[in-house]
Each structure stands twice: as C-alpha cells, then as structure tokens.
Design goal:
The chain has 1 helix and no strands. With 148 residues, the chain is mainly α. The longest helix has 146 residues.
C-alpha cells in the first residue's frame, strides 16, 4: 500500500496537470472559436465589401457605359442634326437664288414697264403737242380768215 500511497500525490499532480491542460485546451478552443467567429465576420465584411465594390464598380461601369451610350447617341443626333442643317442651308441657298432671280426678273419687268410708260408718255406728249399745235394752227387760220 505504500506504493499506492506514494502514487497518490503523483495522481494528484497528474490530475492537476490534466485539469490545467483541459483548462488550456478549453481556453484554446474558446480562442479558436472566437477567431473563427472573427474570421467569419471579417470574411463577411470582406465579401460584403467586395460585393459593394463590385456593385459600385458595376454601377460606375454601368453609369459610365450609359454615359458613353448617351454621348454616342447625342453625337449621332448632333451629326444627323448637322446633316439636316446642311440640307436646310442648301435649301436656303437655292431659295435665295430663286429669290434673287425673281428680284432680277421683277426689276427687269419694272424697268421695261418704266421705259414703256416713258415711251407712252413721250408719245402722249407728242400727240398732245401735235393736238395743241393743230388747235393753235386752226385758231391762227381762223383768225387769219376772219381778219381777211
């Protein structure tokens, strides 16, 4: 029994060491669990950040793509409008030529009419002068025939 009694302190020390190891193991398990929880949180934050970053990037990329599409459509619209404006300018130039031609024709006709009117006036003045000359000549003839 002496041998058994000699082992009792050793068994106590072993139990204490075992309890201490269990405590350390529990503490380590708790630390591992906390670390896994923290890793899960960090992983979640990282994943969430990555998702946000992708959505921000995609939103920015989408916004940029939309902006580029808008600018492209605006450029197409501006080019089409410029082509329309060029067509309108050509139409205006043609209309201006037609107007200038019509103005020249009108001026020509007005000049022709003015010349004809002037010629008619000259003819009427001559006819009136001739008539007055004839009236004067008749008066003169009457005056001579009555005087004589």
């Amino acid at each position: 029994m002496a041998n058994i009694d000699a082992l009792t302190p050793l068994i106590g020390i072993a139990r204490s060491a075992c309890d201490e190891a269990a405590r350390k193991m529990g503490n380590a398990q708790r630390l591992v669990a906390q670390a896994e929880t923290k890793r899960g949180l960090l992983s979640g934050y990282w994943s969430e950040y990555q998702t946000r970053q992708r959505s921000i990037y995609q939103a920015d990329a989408t916004r940029m793509a939309n902006f580029h599409d808008f600018l492209a459509k605006l450029k197409v619209t501006m080019d089409a409008h410029e082509a329309d404006m060029e067509s309108l300018r050509e139409h205006l130039a043609e209309a201006r030529k037609e107007w200038e031609l019509a103005q020249r024709r009108l001026k020509s006709l007005e000049n022709l009419s003015g010349r004809r009117f002037a010629q008619a006036r000259v003819g009427m003045n001559r006819a009136q002068q001739k008539l007055q000359d004839e009236i004067s000549a008749q008066r003169l003839m009457r005056g001579m025939s009555q005087a004589g």
